[in-house]
Amino acid sequence: MVVLAGFMRILSAGFVRHYHGRLLNIHPSLLPRYKGLHTHKRALEAGDTEHGCSVHFVTEELDGGPLVVQAVISVQLHDTPATLAQRVHVQEHRIYPLAIRWFAEGRLSLGEQGALLDSQLLPASGHLIRH
């Protein structure tokens, strides 16, 4: 398993293919919304009422792999990009260890149709955790 966190480089297609099904990444948005950078600012500018973070399998598409788990939080009236980032970061520390544990226990895998947990296809949004 290769676990990426704060990894701000695009991986080569060969690397991604070599580790297919064994690469996990965490992203500070509710994918597929806000791929790439400045996710908290973009969520606030869009007037989103919910934001969060996503763990996904890495594919050749940037932030586009099958979702494993997402943590959803409410956007507060006085949130700034910094305060929203702080609250999302707390959730990252909850869901990434969970996804890693599932993978290490053999419960999480990447199938032809998407992410599988306990041999069951996860919904497109992954396993949702609301806070």
From TrEMBL:
GO cellular component assignments: cytosol
Pathway: Purine metabolism; IMP biosynthesis via de novo pathway; N(2)-formyl-N(1)-(5-phospho-D-ribosyl)glycinamide from N(1)-(5-phospho-D-ribosyl)glycinamide (10-formyl THF route): step 1/1
Residue ranges constituting the Formyl transferase N-terminal domain according to the UniProt record: 1-100
Pfam families recorded: Formyl_trans_N
Any GO MF annotation of the entry: phosphoribosylglycinamide formyltransferase activity
Enzyme type, top EC level: transferase
Hydrolase among keywords: no
E.C. code: 2.1.2.2
Similarity remark: Belongs to the GART family.
NCBIfam families noted in UniProt: PurN
Name recorded for this polypeptide: Phosphoribosylglycinamide formyltransferase
The organism of origin for this protein: Pseudomonas coronafaciens pv. striafaciens
